[in-house]
């Protein structure tokens, strides 16, 4: 109530805060905010997405940029997510995102994605239309073991794996 300045937490739709889940788990704070649609946790310290608990199932937009995340385990409990912003973390495995049926916008800029095949998981997100992956190793070469190939085009590879994608790194995906 102090953070939102609102007594009736049922009315809170947007919340922005910084947390350190090493000291305090957020547990099931979503129980108190049943109508929360947007949550900004940028520059927080999150050990795991699981630290958010399982009660944020009505969230539509979640920001967790620069939070020290190394994986997305637990993101499936945010089943209504339409937009997810997790830039500048240390995420390399995208398999957990396959459970997000409503995901339309995904920002993975500056993460640790080093295998182009991770994009196959995003191909299963049938509503995904906007994706940002610049600043990941896959933009330079298909996987960590391969040498840089002069004719490698990550945009063309991503488009093959996610044919329904409309924008890649803020440029129409059709432009390879």
TrEMBL record:
**Which UniProt keywords are present, listed alphabetically?**
Leucine-rich repeat, Repeat
Protein name, entry field = LRC56 protein
Keyword Aminoacyl-tRNA synthetase among UniProt keywords: no
**Annotated organism of origin:** Columbina picui (Picui ground-dove)
* Signal peptide bounds: none
InterPro entries (UniProt xref): Leu-rich_rpt, Leu-rich_rpt_4, LRR_dom_sf, LRRC56
Give one Pfam hit by family name: LRR_4
